[in-house]
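Bump. Still looking for M20 family metallopeptidase structure tokens.
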Amino acid sequence: MTAAEQLIIWRRHLHRYPELSFAEHKTTAYIVEQLAGLPGVTLHTGKETIGLDTGVLATVGNGEAPVIGLRADIDALPIEEKTGADYQSVHRGIMHACGHDGHTAMLLGAVHRLSELHESGKLKGTVKCLFQPAEETSDEQGLTGAQHILASGILDDVMAMIALHLDPELPYKQIKLCSGIVMANVDTFSIVISGTGGHGAYPEQAVDPIWLTSLILPGLYGIPARKIAALEPAVLSIGRLEAGSSANVIPSQVRLNGTIRTYSIAARGQMEIALRHVLESVKAYGGSYELTMEHGEPALKNAPEIVKLLEETVRSVEPEIAIHEQPYGMGSEDFSHLAAQWPGAMLFLGAGLPQQTALHQPTFDFNEAALELGTNILVEAGLRLLSGKALSTIQ
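Sorry for the wait, here they are.
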């Protein structure tokens, strides 16, 4: 069996048996099974060791400095798969729709390769390979997997961190990679608009919260265009709106949930202030509101020295590769917590198919040829990082 064939086997197994954030127990066991007994590889699992019950940290080497990190996420999404693939999810309503199965397979391949290099005496330093749970969502404490693992201290000796993300909208042998902010801050809001409710036949006797909501929606959607500078990335989206239970009853409350995404700290603050100002307007019509904000991932910032190393790496691994120097969009990534702790960078790896799909869609799939390319990039980038040139710049 070739290395490329093994990567596909790993990926398809993981795709067939997806698990949601904080519940990746069988995924964790599968990762351990594929890595157990490899020369020079020490496996760390469990809440007391890595901060969560799920996830794996595979340390390759003898613990000698320098120590660098490679990261993949392992959780799936609450999406009903509609690909019709032979390896389609067997768990109804759960799907690897963001490529985490591919990320995990590539890091499994990287650990195997690094183990071989260690055994032959060619690995100078230590590589901590993090199979991270719970990238997609936070727990009741508002924390994602990266935050829990950082708090455990298991990564305290790491000097730099690298990750990659599959991109189904970008052709194979193309990547997105640039320095600076490449993905957004994300803040989640919950709003309750309250009135008095009443009979549908006598709206004048009620303070209709649905009517109040209809008045503020244009104001909410207009915030990015009218309160934020045109060259400043900012998006407000409402994903959930609930009200009422009967056709002839005016309800007393409307509930809305949505997200705000920005690149800069200044825009992040301005968006929240503007949101509150719009909501204040319901008071003029006899209503009231409650706003709850949950501040999520910070913007992902790629360190210039790591980006330069990755550019050199991908061109050495695949000379014909096309590099698009552009941000990755308004999505968020909890790798940003790791990249804020040390110099780090994430690249987006093209893996498009003829039947184009997008992340977080029930038809999501990707070109599996990207698995071998991604594995090679991870391994070569790790070796170049350990060689010292980029780390000396960091130090």
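The chain has a mean pLDDT of 96.

Edit: fixed formatting.
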